[in-house]
Amino acid sequence: MELSGGDGPVFSLAWAPDGQSIAAAGDRQINIWRLATAAPTRRFRNHPALVRSLDWSTDRKLIASVRNDGKANVWNVDTLNDAATLQTGARAIKWSPDGRPQATGGASGSLQLWNSESGALLHTSRLQTMISSLSWSPIAIGSPPLSRTAREARVE
């Protein structure tokens, strides 16, 4: 299947949790396609900068994105409104599988956990290198801010 209608390069792709849609991040935009169509069904063009990373909420109602200037936005998929802005130096963002905290990672090696409802910073860890991609461990769900496995790996 060829997905048409996007402008410019794609810097990040994310599947919706239901597997029926895909979002693509590019130069100041996010395009969303339903797999049943070839043209974008939604277009976010409100970004003042290149979009580096994006992820869907587990309920498919929100998309979180990180801009080239390090700010993270949470967008309502239905209204295309900005639901929240996180002031972080992020390069990557990922919702936890249970939908509660979000993680951001930045060029400075900062790994941060955020309350996805209030936007409050919950926890910060520092790595010795830039973070450009994130993934959650399935065993971390229901654990303290970082899983025991992560703490054992010295991500504190």
How would you characterize this protein structure?
The chain has 156 residues and is mainly beta. It has a single domain, classed as YVTN repeat-like/Quinoprotein amine dehydrogenase (Methylamine Dehydrogenase, Chain H). 3% of the residues lie in helices and 42% in strands. The strands form 3 sheets. The protein has a 4-stranded antiparallel sheet, with no helix packed on it. A 4-stranded antiparallel sheet has the order 5-6-7-8, with no helix packed on it. The chain is globular and about 40 Å long. The relative contact order is 0.12. Residues 144-156 have low confidence and may be disordered.
Percent range of helical residues: under 10%
* Helix and strand pattern: EEEEEEEEEEEEH
N-end to C-end Cα span: 43 Å
Say what oligomer this is.
single chain
Architecture, CATH level 2?
7 Propeller
| Structural class by SSE content | mainly beta
> Quick one: biggest sheet?
4 strands, antiparallel
Total helices: the number is: 1
Average pLDDT level: 81
Q: CATH superfamily name?
A: YVTN repeat-like/Quinoprotein amine dehydrogenase
Main sheet strand line-up: 1-2-3-4
Number of strands: 12
CATH topology: Methylamine Dehydrogenase, Chain H
The figure for the number of domains is: 1
Low-confidence stretches: 144-156
Radius of gyration: 15 Å
Overall geometric form: globular
Residue fraction in strands:
35-45%
What is the CATH level 1 assignment? Answer: Mainly Beta
